[in-house]
Amino acid sequence: MEILLFVASAATGVWGISHILATRGVVAGFGQLTADNRRIITMEWITEGVALISVAALVAVVTAIDANTAVSSAAYAVAIATLIAMAIVSLFTGFRIAFLPFRLCPFIFSASAVMIALGTWF
How crowded is the C-beta side of 4, counted as CA atoms within 13 Å? Predict the structure, then answer.
């Protein structure tokens, strides 16, 4: 069911864009930091956003071209594995933070992975 693939792609992409847009506020929330630490946090926050946008773009593009090829199946498998890995990391790190958006990451990543899996099987 291609609609699930596009919904998963949209959810993942929007969450990635929100990461990038929130970078300045997130870094500011850490208070006084050394220049190096500020750069590291900025880099990591943007990198997660770019990774999410890339996964979203991959899923959307292969779905739009042809969702029923071996290459598409491989791309979906990589996207699912990436999202599950990010969900696990987020579960053991960001989920322990009281700030709600951090706590949402494992659920959003997992839901997107499940939608991609379901979209490839139906």
Answer: 15
pTM above 0.85, yes or no: yes
Residue 8 has which token pair?
């998963």
At residue 59's C-alpha, the angle toward residues 58 and 65, to 5°, is: 90
DSSP-H helix ranges across the chain: 2-28, 35-66, 70-92, 100-121
Residue type at 23 in one-letter notation? T
Token pair listed for 89: 């990391």
Residue with tokens 């987020």: 90
Q: Which helix (H) or strand (E) holds 94?
A: none
Residue whose pair of structure tokens reads 């006084």 in the numeric block: 32
**89: helix, coil or strand?**
helix
What is the per-residue burial (b if ≥16 Cβ within 10 Å, else e) of 86-122? bbeebbeebeeeeeeeeeebbebbbbbbebbbebbee
pLDDT means per 10 residues, the chain with 122 residues, are: 96 97 92 95 96 98 96 97 96 85 92 97 84
Please work out, in degrees rounded to the nearest 5, the angle formed at the alpha carbon of residue 27 by the alpha carbons of 20 and 83.
Answer: 45
